[in-house]
Specification:
The complex is a heterodimer of chains A (189) and B (243). By secondary structure, chain A is mainly alpha-helical. Chain A folds into two domains: 83 residues, Winged helix-like DNA-binding domain superfamily/Winged helix DNA-binding domain (Arc Repressor Mutant, subunit A), CATH 1.10.10.10; 89 residues. In chain A, 63% of the residues lie in helices and 8% in strands. With 243 residues, chain B is an alpha/beta fold. Chain B has a domain of 118 residues: P-loop containing nucleotide triphosphate hydrolases (Rossmann fold), CATH 3.40.50. Chain B contains seven helices and ten strands. At the A-B interface, helix 6 and helix 7 of A face helix 6, strand 9 and helix 7 of B.
């Protein structure tokens, strides 16, 4: 779903053809484990839904390039998707795609998304906190079991911390971009 | 009524010509006996430090309101900056005199309030509570890091504060030492109905707390329960199972 919507966003940004869209997607969502061919089924399904349409062909007979442009419905659907809350796999799931293809106008919503996801991470951490008992130091048989549980718990929380840090950094950069934009607008007016 | 309440507290610093917002309308409540931790990356260090100092009464906020034990300490901080008498601040430095024994060092915050023998009695009690009574005669130089941390906790507790503030209390300790120290701190907090507010740069060290909030770029995010639970905070809770 996210790849499909990201491709739609790229077509809305400017019309393109399959290979070029795949290149753009790779450029924007770096480190994406996705083969170029994933863009073609996305284009098919978007065409079927009539969210994009063919705009024409270029190239010679054996290297045909089909150009795509968005339909008005496609634009509406994309805006809807941008406005939906992102799933909680910060910066891996849909939020990652949204950040990569967002325009300045969409950043405030995404900033709000990072806040919500950070809060969800804190909620998960809260479920792991508490007085998890003594460590069983001194009892040779019981020694490892509680420590092992503790180590696992710390590992879970460490992963959540990494997510929180990534969200905080993403939010800080988005806020900075908006501030820079506001300063430029103020200067030019 | 919560023990501590922050209402849209803001703080800015100037770095050259640049204004840095380290606290941007931060609000949260803390109940008596509650152990709360603030997670901040190293980059938000100025924010967490400012927050702790404002709560302790040693730094004024630019705007917003801090209420502690029913008293508006924003007004107090503007009048005079000093550690609030009911707040304990966990320090990390040893005595000025290297030969000073820890019993006396722990008693130090009391010396201008109670007679010397009484101060020593209370210091002994504080050291016993943190299970560090064997360190009474030790000097700073002779002690390991976890021992120093225990002594500093005892010193912060000696005035029997309603709120204990700690900035990264367990840095330099091993995982087991951190767990032991923070477990003990939590037990004392619950026993004495004392609230703890601590800032730690590493979330796994916060596992002994009741709640974890995060601060970055001046913004504080709090868990949903805290945000939604207007006046009822149910803790201590049953501990959740790890995923």
């Amino acid at each position: 779903m996210s790849v499909k919507m990201a491709v739609l966003g790229l077509v809305i940004e400017r019309p393109g053809y399959g290979y070029e869209l795949a290149q753009r997607l790779h450029e924007r969502v770096e480190g994406l484990q996705l083969s170029e061919s994933a863009v073609y089924p996305a284009l098919d399904s978007l065409s079927k839904a009539e969210w994009i349409r063919q705009r024409g062909r270029t190239g010679r007979a054996h290297v045909q390039r089909i150009w795509y442009e968005p339909t008005p419905e496609g634009v509406v659907r994309f805006d809807e998707w941008m406005a939906t809350p992102s799933d909680l796999v910060p910066l891996r799931g849909s939020l990652r795609f949204k950040i990569a293809i967002a325009t300045l106008a969409q950043l405030p919503k995404l900033i709000e998304d990072t806040r919500e996801q950070e809060q969800a991470c804190l909620d998960q951490i809260e479920r792991l906190t508490g007085d998890h008992g003594p460590l069983g130091i001194g009892d040779p048989d019981a020694e490892w079991a509680p420590t092992g549980r503790l180590v696992l718990r710390r590992t879970d929380v460490k992963l959540l911390q990494a997510q929180i840090e990534a969200l905080q950094e993403a939010r800080a950069e988005m806020k900075r971009a908006l501030r820079r934009h506001a300063a430029r607008t103020a200067r030019s007016s | 009524m919560p023990l501590l309440s922050l209402d849209r507290v803001s703080k800015r610093y100037w770095r050259g010509r640049h204004e840095i917002v380290v606290l941007d309308e931060v609000s949260f409540d803390l109940e008596a006996g509650e152990f709360a931790a603030i997670f901040g990356q190293r980059s938000s260090g100025p924010g967490t430090r400012a927050l702790l100092r404002i709560v302790a009464g040693i730094e004024p906020a630019d705007s917003g309101r801090v209420t502690f034990a029913g008293e508006d300490i924003t007004a107090r901080a503007r009048a005079r900056l000093s550690l609030h008498p009911r707040v304990g601040w966990l320090r990390r430095t040893g005595p000025f005199l290297p030969s000073m024994e820890m019993l006396e060092y722990v008693a130090l915050p009391l010396l201008d309030k109670v007679p010397y023998p009484e101060a020593l009695r209370r210091a002994t009690r504080a050291l016993t509570r943190i299970r560090a009574d064997e360190l009474a005669r030790a000097t700073w130089r002779e002690m390991s890091d976890p021992e120093r941390t225990s002594v500093m906790i005892a010193q912060a507790l000696v005035r029997e504060p309603a709120l204990l503030i700690a900035d990264d209390p367990t840095s330099g300790l091993s995982v087991q030492e951190r767990e032991t120290t923070l477990g003990l701190l939590r037990a004392i907090a619950e026993e004495q109905d004392m609230a703890v507010l601590m800032a730690v740069p590493d979330v796994p060290d916060m596992l002994r707390s009741h709640t974890v909030m995060s601060l970055s770029d001046g913004e504080m995010i709090v868990p949903t329960r805290r945000r939604a639970g207007a006046d009822v905070i149910d803790f201590p809770r049953e501990r959740g199972e790890s995923a």
